[in-house]
Amino acid sequence: MVDLKGQYEGIKEEVNTSIAEVLDSSAFINGPYVHAFQKELEDYLGAKHVIPCANGTDALQICMMGLGLKPGDEVITADFTFAATVEVIALLNLTPVLVDVEEDTFNIDPEAIEKAITPNTKAIVPVHLFGQCANMDAILELAKKHNLYVIEDNAQAIGADHTFKNGDKQKAGTMGHVASTSFFPSKNLGCYGDGGAIFTNDDDLAHTIRGMVNHGMYKRYYHDVIGVNSRLDSMQAAVLRAKLPNLDEYNRKRRNAARKYSKAFEGQSNIAVPKTVNGCEGICDSCDCHVFHQYTLRILNEKRDDLAQHLNDNGVPCGVYYPVPLHRQKAYVDERYDEADFPVTNQLVKEVISLPMHTELDDEQIEFITNLVIDFVNQ
Question: How many separate helices (H) and strands (E) can be counted in the chain?
């Protein structure tokens, strides 16, 4: 699914040199590489504050801690996403409120959000799924109308742009009150272990969170807030510094591979290709509206599971993201949920399949994969 070895070969010298410098300095925690990466990522995103941390799940949890959400506060998020998003809500004894998603983008449905808002609602967590932003125009309008926090889950869309109705553009993760991201190795900007970060333009919130990631300390052994131990180590920062200057090119290569996939699937009535919105129609190369963390098809003739087996039998990895909606997961079952409220999610979990997507895909691989899919689906 991801060719990390091939990607490493292209930046081997920079990565090895950076790691050697960390080893020579022995500054393994909060060292110069971490601070330099923080500043470089702030410049790239156009964000006032980037606070590195240990992983993307911690990042999302600390966002909620930093906002001062209290047990029982309701947090609305998407039913169709990875469990980490709802996991941290539950861990903090907040009340998760899962809602349906849009069929074309797979992202949270603003109409479903509005229907779910109650006097206890305190925050919305839009997940920028598979590499493109949720409908932030509508979400930010709802948040303003109802005085809610917006916490962007940007684990899959770093580098993506959102184009607002007025033509302004902002990077994913810089539009809400605060945002989290993951640097898991398979991400578009991934390190060689676990890593994450929090973004915000709020000076006071940034100050609070900087203490929280380091046991609540601003001065050693003086604990001003309740915190956690969640720090990005210098080795991972060294890898990320080597990769960050290449991120736009990595994303361009992903879009190029996605365009070739979609071109090959044109006219296939049993296959629905990903739709790119929020700035352009179709899959273009003139903007960063979609950075294709995943290239996800919908198989419309009930052959998805058999197709997955067929691809694996022929040496082609694939993934089903996600096979079970969160509202049906044993850990998150709740009598408040009505199956009638999740028609899109319940359909997507039967249809979606993600094909290999990474910076090293070549035309021969794409042709082989698409031929396998087309031939099998049309049998």
Answer: 13, 14
